[in-house]
Amino acid sequence: MKNHVIFLIFTIGLFIFGCSGASTTYHIKEDVDFSYIKKIAILPLDNFSPNKTASEAVRQVLTTEMLASGFVDVVVPGDVMAAINNIGVRSVTSPSVEEIRALGKFLRVEAVIIGSVDKYGETRMGNINVAEVSLTLMMVDTGAGDILWSVTKSSSGASFMSRHFGAKTPTLSETVSTVIGEAIATLEAY
């Protein structure tokens, strides 16, 4: 009987904790009232994945998810690129504080989001293809140049049910939406 209980506890623990390939690390600057942020600009993201279109695909989903959250309004990507070109930002994926301040004034935004796509694609796990997505996002105040929020969110691997029982795995698009939604949730929880 005792062995059965131990086996049951081990199995439940494995099922709950050992089956997820998702992780989240985030930081929110203390004593910041985010209510002053009404509008943001999302700058082009660094792309460390082999997929050449990953950063733009993620940026589009990030724009949609930020708007859907109701947290802030987002500047149209074309206006962001026009501002970057007008100001002469040297590195759109790693702008200086002065460039961030200039973008803030030009676009009339309180913050910008910068970051990177660290992983974006599918990998083979046993007999199934599994979407892998890893993102790093930072919200930078356009006045002070401080990082207000930073999050690294990853999702890789299939669920226990898909690995062992052939259940459907999320598509790459679904995984991107989930990763971004959960990243934004760290900000909304604050």
What would you note in describing this structure?
41% of the residues lie in helices and 28% in strands. The protein has helices at 2-17, 54-69, 77-87, 97-107, 160-165, 172-188; strands spanning 22-28, 39-42, 46-47, 73-74, 111-125, 128-141, 147-155. Strand 6 and strand 7 (147-155) form a beta hairpin. It is globular. It has one domain (22-188): 3-Layer(aba) Sandwich (Rossmann fold), CATH 3.40.50. The longest helix is centred in the C-terminal third of the chain and has 17 residues, at 172-188. It contains six helices and seven strands. The protein is an alpha/beta fold and 190 residues long. Strands 1, 2, 3, 4, 5, 6 and 7 form a seven-stranded mixed sheet that branches.
What are the salient characteristics of this protein?
7 strands; 190 residues; alpha/beta
Largest sheet: 7 strands, mixed
How far is the first residue's CA from the last residue's CA? 46 Å
CATH C-level class is Alpha Beta
- The overall number of domains is 1
CATH topology: Rossmann fold
Mean pLDDT: 85
Note the quaternary state here. single chain
User: What is the annotated CATH architecture?
Assistant: 3-Layer(aba) Sandwich
What's the order of the H and E elements?
HEEEHEHHEEEHH
Structural class of the helices, strands and pairings?
alpha/beta
Which residues sit in consecutive blocks of at least 5 with pLDDT less than 50?
A: 4-20
How many E-type strands?
A: 7
Tell me the fraction of residues in β-strands, as a range: 25-35%
Radius of gyration: 20 Å
Helix content range: 40-55%
Structure annotation, total helices: 6
